[in-house]
Design a protein that fits this description.
With 201 residues, this protein is of the alpha/beta class. 52% of the residues lie in helices and 14% in strands. α4 crosses α6 (127-136). Residues 3-119 form the Response regulatory domain. Keywords: DNA-binding, Phosphoprotein. Residues 134-199 form the HTH luxR-type domain.
Length: 201
């Protein structure tokens, strides 16, 4: 049996997915978690063969959890299954050691086939997203620029961002200016939107 861990914050979606995958003769769902910060502990306890992770989860992103699983439970393959098919997310998922990346709008038969392929050592990537990722190129933002934009998401002031990240206000302004330039936008609100749209945050 292929042992599966599901990480999905929409409980109805997680229940439906568990039910459908449980109907496959060779699959068993051994863990279901609604938050990203529960993934690694559940995986270490239940030892799944494949972890199906959403990206945007409470507590911790599925991409961060994927990197931890690679380090702490290398026998577990990671398949990212998300609503958000953004090129930057695909690139980050591959860097985190994920074996596959699928968008949720496909049929469950395709998901079951992808699980089997990932377990056999293949990489499974949504073809449309792979093409988009290649044309989008790498993330131009540095880690610090991403941190500053992430802190600016809710309309925080420069002073708020500086206090949160333990930086001077001048340094925050420099990072914001660099991020605005790299995203080709006019202000930090547009820069945040562009970075999110591309999956760079």
């Amino acid at each position: 049996m292929i042992r599966l861990l599901l990480a999905e914050d929409q409980r109805m979606m997680m229940g439906a997915l568990a039910l459908l995958l449980g109907l496959e003769d060779d699959m068993e769902v051994v863990a279901q978690v609604p938050a990203g910060d529960e993934i690694v502990a559940a995986a270490l306890e239940t030892r799944p063969d494949v972890a199906l992770l959403d990206i945007e989860l409470p507590g911790r992103s599925g991409l961060d959890a994927a990197a931890d699983l690679r380090d702490q439970l290398p026998s577990c393959k990671v398949l990212i299954v998300t609503t958000f098919g953004r090129p930057g997310y695909l690139r980050r998922a591959m860097e985190a050691g994920a074996s596959g990346f699928l968008v949720k709008d496909g049929p469950v038969e395709d998901l079951a086939a992808a699980i089997r392929r990932v377990l056999a050592g293949e990489r499974v990537i949504d073809p449309g997203l792979a093409a988009a990722a290649l044309s989008a190129g790498p993330n131009p933002l540095t880690q610090r620029e991403r941190d500053v934009l992430t802190a600016a998401v809710d309309g925080a002031t420069v002073a708020d961002i500086a206090a949160k990240l333990h930086l001077s206000q001048a340094t925050v302004r420099n990072y914001l200016s660099a991020a605005i330039g790299k995203t080709g936008t006019r202000n930090r609100i547009e820069a945040v939107r562009a970075a999110r749209r591309n999956g760079w945050l």
